[in-house]
Amino acid sequence: MKVIALIKQVPDTSIALKINAEATDIVYQDVPWVINPYDEYAVEEALRIKEKLGGSVTLISIGPDRVTDILRGALAMGADEAIHLKDAAFDGSDAYSIAFILSKVLQLSGFDIIICGKQAVDDGWGQVGAALAEMLNITSISSILKLEVAEDRKHAIAHREIDEGLEIVKVPLPALFTAQQGLNKPRYASLPGIMKAKKKEIKILGANGLGISFQDVGRKASSIELKKLSYPPARKQGKILQGDAMTTTKELLNLMRSEAKLI
Amino acid sequence: MSCDIWVIAEHTANTISSGTLEAIGAGRFFSNRLNVKLSLVILGNKIDALIHRLSDTGVDNVYVLENLHLSLYTSDAYINSLEPFIKQHKPSIILMTSTCLSRDFAPKLASRLKTAYVPDVSGIEINPPSPPLLKGGEGGILFTRPIYGGRLLSTVICKGETPWVVTLRPRAFEKIVDTSKKANIEKIEPTLSPSNIRTIIEGIEKTQKGLGLTDADIVVSGGRGMKGPENFKMLEELANILGGVVGASGAAVDAGWLPHSAQVGQTGKVVSPKLYIACGISGAPQHLAGMSTSKCIVAINKDPDAPIFKVADYGIVGDVFEVVPRLIEGLKK
Fold first, then answer.
1. Helical H runs in A110-154?
2. ipTM of this predicted complex?
3. Cross-chain Cβ contact A13/B199 below 8 Å
4. Domains of chain A from N-terminus onward
């Protein structure tokens, strides 16, 4: 099985975020970068498929030099090879263009299963997987919580989150899956894994190497234009009650009845 | 080109979803300002009982796409039905409420149409106020949406070919009830071949009884301070009395006390109920991102410095095991 895991590097979401003076982006100074948590589930699932059925796991990520960190991190988890797509021409690409760039690589590399996170925790757009599957003319199954490749290796059964609960769906391979939280618990890289990862080659490719025209990617090709970033309106200071539970509970019920008119 | 605004409906058990009614509200805002028609598109199989109730939802047209293969949602059947119909009618904007279904479907549809997709919109502004607004996309319509799990807002415009596919964050837009208008109902029978539907649904497990977290008017959530799964019974009782549902913080889910589907937060459900009661939740940024747009927030926590009190409208500094039973008692009276 040739399994591909698509990973994105995102700012660590546990830190406070500041908007720059032009309101066009966040301030990246001192921001730690991490692998998108949903993509980490994707890497773990890719490794489990390989361990069960054999084959290889290839990582692909798009971004500047710093992306090397998450590629090394996922190689240390046990992935076999990594492709780093790096080109200034890719800057400002929308999800559709990102998918287009990925499709070019995948058409060259081949694949049986592609896994990525259901969305990235930065912009939460959640379109790359869907668009990529469309371009590759394969099915995409979103928000999966369980994945099993059938014995014939030509199908997979996935459990995916739906509004009412869970849907069990059978899909022909090759196919693309997007990972939801709960799919698995990503492993930590072992020390030998980290040592090995240092020696693994990260292949770097740009627009020219992939035969991508500058008109098809980047800010100019984007169907979305950012106008500004802003902070959500602050909530006003609330009434915080202290004292014994009997009195405070009574007062809370009064406030909810008379002031908030909620009950 | 018709330029119409479309809303694609979501429905279960012969009832149109509450989020769809909000999308109709947002659609009416567009159609009035842009002076175009508003149409509701509904896909399904044997949905006559539902259709009759749709004529007075305040839309101009109801398009009903009925086919045996549309009884359950699959992206292939939905897209194969809609694509030729969209190309024929050329709507300018397609709206849906943001749900698991639209999170799957809408980006696929936009990718098939090669047009812009904007998910989870919480605010819409039209600027400048006069048409033409859609072609070319200069100026035009400003879509605001939460990013970084709601910790920041991003305002974007769409460019290029229409229809733009836009999903709306639940509870961000008002439902508009307009019974003065009777909609034209048009039935369309799309031709679908089973060989073009690549996925086979083998089963559905309904884990959700009644309302889901994102639909509920009242959410009662518990965190690490609940100390164990057995103590969530208390929160269930409180939620039952109020007509709400139970949620959990990431810490409670990580501890295995509640399933992931109950998690409120950046990696979990984003909720915006009328009343959110946080019990034994300290208020990590991850959690606040998922609930801080709630209308009224009540927090109960032992620690007076817990960040949850910064977003709470009402708070009690105290032990949940003393406060919650008294709340239940007080509400029963």
1. 128-136
2. 0.95
3. no
4. 2-221 (3.40.50.620), 237-263 (no CATH)
* Contact call for A181 and B314, based on CB within 8 A: no
Q: Do A163 and B208 touch (CB under 8 A)?
A: yes
pLDDT digits (tens, 9 = 90+) for A17-44: 899 999 999 999 989 999 999 999 999 9
Q: For position B251, what pLDDT does the model report?
A: 95
Q: Cα(B236)–Cα(B129) distance, rounded to whole angstroms?
A: 48
Strands A139-149 and A175-179: parallel
Residue B71 C-alpha from the chain's centroid: 21
Would you state the pLDDT for residue B67? 96
The nearest alpha carbon in chain A to B206 belongs to: A165
The Cα of B74 is separated from the nearest Cα of chain A by a number of Å equal to 10
Q: What does the radius of gyration of chain B's CA atoms come to, in whole angstroms?
A: 22
pLDDT in tens, A148-167: 999 889 999 999 999 888 99
Average pLDDT for A130-153: 96
To the nearest whole Å, the CA of A93 is away from the closest chain B CA by: 13
Asked if residue B273 has pLDDT above 80, the reply is yes
Q: How many CB atoms lie within 10 A of CB B198?
A: 18
The whole-model pTM stands at: 0.93
A106-125 pLDDT, tens digit each? 999 999 999 999 999 999 99
* CA-to-CA separations, A182 to A18, A143, B20, B223, B252, in angstroms, rounded: 30, 10, 28, 18, 14
* Residue B133 contacts A, CB cutoff 8 Å: no
CB nearest A162 (choices: B100, B116, B285): B100
Cis status, amide bond into B307, omega within 30 of 0: no
Q: Which domains does chain B have, with CATH numbers?
A: 5-196 (3.40.50.620), 218-332 (3.40.50.1220)
Contacts of B242 (CB under 8 A, 6+ apart): A263, B218, B220, B275, B331
Do residues A59 and A83 lie in contact, with contact meaning Cβ atoms separated by under 8 Å?
yes
- Cβ neighbours of residue A110 under 8 Å, at least 6 residues apart? A2
Rounded to the nearest angstrom, the minimum Cα separation between A175 and chain B is 10
Q: Do A232 and B199 touch (CB under 8 A)?
A: no
Which amino acid is present at A208?
N
Q: What is the mean pLDDT of residues B220-228?
A: 97
> Of B263, B202, B99, whose CA–CA distance to A167 is shortest?
B202
For the cut 90, the answer to whether the pLDDT of residue B140 exceeds it is no
The answer to whether B103 contacts A143, with C-beta atoms less than 8 Å apart, is yes
Phi/psi for A4 (5° steps) reads -115, 130
| Share above pLDDT 90 across residues of chain A, in percent, rounded to a whole number | 91
For chain A, the average pLDDT equals 95
Please, are residues B275 and A262 in contact by the beta-carbon 8 Å criterion?
yes
Residues of B with Cβ-Cβ distance to A133 under 8 angstroms = 108
Rounded alpha-carbon distances, angstroms, from residue B249 to A24, A128, A135, B282: 32, 28, 38, 9
Match 């605001």 to its residue by tokens. B144
| Residues 6+ positions from A233 with CB-CB distance below 8 Å | none
Model confidence band, residue B136 (pLDDT cutoffs 50, 70, 90): very low
Q: What CA–CA distance (Å, rounded) separates A177 from A183? A: 11
